[in-house]
Design brief:
Blueprint: E1 4-7, H1 12-23, E2 32-37, H2 57-65, E3 67-68, H3 79-88, H4 120-126, E4 130-136, E5 154-158, E6 173-178, E7 189-192, E8 195-198, E9 214-215, E10 218-219, H5 226-240, E11 246-251, E12 259-262, H6 263-266, H7 275-300, E13 307-312
Parallel strand pairs: 1-3, 1-13, 2-11, 2-13, 4-5, 4-11, 6-8
Antiparallel strand pairs: 5-9, 6-12, 7-8, 9-10
Helix pairs in contact: 5-7
Length: 313
């Protein structure tokens, strides 16, 4: 079976569940499954979709070598309900999960992907897969909704809707922050070193409040730019589980706000005058390089003939 790299498939949950139902007694012949999920990435921002401003060669390569679903749609336009749809194969309206919690609402008792719903990870776990979730969850921040209780064996990431890519004071990055009032008062845009404040659209959510990065269930201090940290952990997961069927859900928070890009990527796009666009371009380029690192690891471990890779946003 050749490596199939599929770009964006609405039918992903049904496809995987079909695989499991026909192969649960033949685990050794089951392919590895990798979902690469970008966050808030627009349809037209990739090179394979016609954008010539921001090179995305690694994601484009998935489209070139695989199957591209140009009319594939997620089940909702925002974070949590679309993830619920991805993991269950159902519209969130069918089980009461069509809203998008932010901040403290993530910690409310009873919020999360309803426990009555079976996930892809649940099904694959029963079939003998080892399952890992790396990155953003946003399907419940309390213990009953932890990824460990939704079919995942390993988890590294955060449970709320977003996170800063590096901890405050945001060293080594250019950071754009929204505020109702500028520091010191007033409206408009003001720059303090590598931090830019704008009163456009009001306050940025306090992404990191009660939302630590955790390994399993224990908070950890992460100093690496978080897109790179997700990639590092994903490569390590593949390294440790290359000898058995695995399901790896790589759930990036890029290019979701806050707009925060590493300096080394900002230098690549200094020709882009609009600072917000430049930060976004740097974040997307970083994401594309990260996708490339994961694909290289699959090839290095000689798993390309036994691995299905999906990229979607």
């Amino acid at each position: 079976m050749k490596l199939q790299k599929l770009l964006f498939s609405l039918f992903l949950p049904f496809f995987i569940l079909k695989l499991v139902s026909h192969g649960s007694n033949r685990v050794s012949q089951m392919p590895n499954l990798i979902i690469l999920l970008a966050d808030d990435l627009g349809y037209g921002e990739l090179g394979c979709q016609g954008n010539q401003e921001i090179p995305t060669p690694n994601i484009d390569d998935i489209a070139k070598k695989g199957v591209r679903f140009s009319q594939g749609y997620v089940t909702a336009p925002n974070c949590s309900p679309s993830r619920a749809g991805l993991l269950t194969g159902k519209y969130g309206t069918r089980f009461g999960h069509e809203f998008n919690p932010t901040g403290a609402k993530n910690e409310e008792p009873g919020f999360g992907l309803p426990l009555s719903q079976q996930t892809i990870a649940d099904s694959l776990q029963m079939a003998g897969y080892v399952n890992g979730l790396i990155g953003k969850w946003h399907l419940g921040g309390t213990a009953p909704y932890h990824p460990f209780r939704r079919g995942f064996d390993e988890f590294f990431g955060f449970t709320h809707e977003g996170h800063y890519f590096v901890p405050e004071p945001w060293k080594g990055t250019t950071t754009w922050l929204r505020r109702r009032v500028l520091p010191g008062g007033g409206q408009g845009i003001r720059t303090f070193g590598n931090v830019i404040y704008s009163t456009h659209l009001g306050n940025e959510p306090d992404y990191d409040a009660n939302n630590p990065i955790v390994r399993g269930s224990q908070p950890v201090r992460e100093k690496e730019y978080f897109t790179d940290a997700i990639t590092r952990e994903s490569v390590d997961f593949i390294d440790r589980h290359s000898d058995k069927p695995f399901f790896l859900f790589v759930s990036y928070n890029a290019v979701h706000s806050p707009l925060q890009a590493a300096d080394k990527y900002m230098k690549k796009f200094k020709h882009i005058e609009d600072i917000q666009r430049r930060i976004f371009a740097a974040m997307l380029s970083n994401l594309d390089d990260s996708v490339g690192e994961i694909l290289k690891k699959v090839e290095k471990e000689d798993l390309e003939n036994d691995t299905l890779v999906f990229f979607l946003s």
